[in-house]
């Protein structure tokens, strides 16, 4: 498992380097581990119309779905902030929840150090697809 985490962290750092962020200059990278063991990456892609910007986590999810994956076990996310761990934005947390609540989340610093947490810890009392089934 440790090698798998190291690879996931390494891939999210590589994805961050591909970010298209000419406006914020805030590159973000993400790497998702599928239930089958594949790693799918994403980076933030900004747009002059700021609301059309897509975060790294959502880019990775969209790429994974296009490739046929909908079951995930973990995600590593990183940005350029060196002095603390930074988590996904609220919108990305909600998008991750669409695909289950049992995610391990690795908050990763630029030097590769990481903090392990969970999606449920980052998004307590979350709204999920299960809520729609109760209507």
Automatic annotation (TrEMBL):
Record-stated family: Belongs to the cytidine and deoxycytidylate deaminase family.
Binding of substrate, residues: 44-50
PROSITE patterns: CYT_DCMP_DEAMINASES_1, CYT_DCMP_DEAMINASES_2
Organism: Eleginops maclovinus (Patagonian blennie)
Keyword S-adenosyl-L-methionine on entry: no
Any single Gene Ontology cellular-component annotation: cytosol
Catalytic function, reaction form: cytidine + H2O + H(+) = uridine + NH4(+); 2'-deoxycytidine + H2O + H(+) = 2'-deoxyuridine + NH4(+)
Extent of the signal sequence: none
Pfam families (alphabetical): dCMP_cyt_deam_1
GO biological process: nucleobase-containing small molecule metabolic process; pyrimidine-containing compound metabolic process
Record-listed E.C. numbers: 3.5.4.5
Annotated residues for binding of Zn(2+): 55, 89, 92
Lineage, top ranks: Eukaryota, Metazoa, Chordata, Craniata, Vertebrata
All residue ranges annotated as the CMP/dCMP-type deaminase domain in the record: 3-130
Full protein name: Cytidine deaminase
């Amino acid at each position: 498992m440790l090698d798998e985490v190291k690879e996931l962290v390494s891939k999210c750092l590589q994805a961050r380097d591909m970010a298209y962020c000419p406006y914020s200059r805030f590159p973000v990278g993400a790497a998702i581990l599928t239930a089958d063991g594949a790693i799918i990456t994403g980076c933030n892609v900004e747009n002059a119309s700021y609301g059309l910007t897509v975060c790294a986590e959502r880019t990775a999810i969209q790429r994974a779905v296009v490739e046929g994956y909908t079951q995930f076990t973990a995600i590593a996310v990183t940005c350029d902030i060196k002095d603390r761990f930074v988590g996904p934005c609220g919108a990305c947390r909600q998008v991750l929840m669409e695909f289950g609540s049992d995610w391990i989340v690795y908050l990763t610093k630029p030097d590769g150090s990481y903090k392990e947490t969970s999606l449920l810890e980052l998004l307590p009392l979350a709204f999920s697809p299960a809520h729609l089934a109760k209507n």
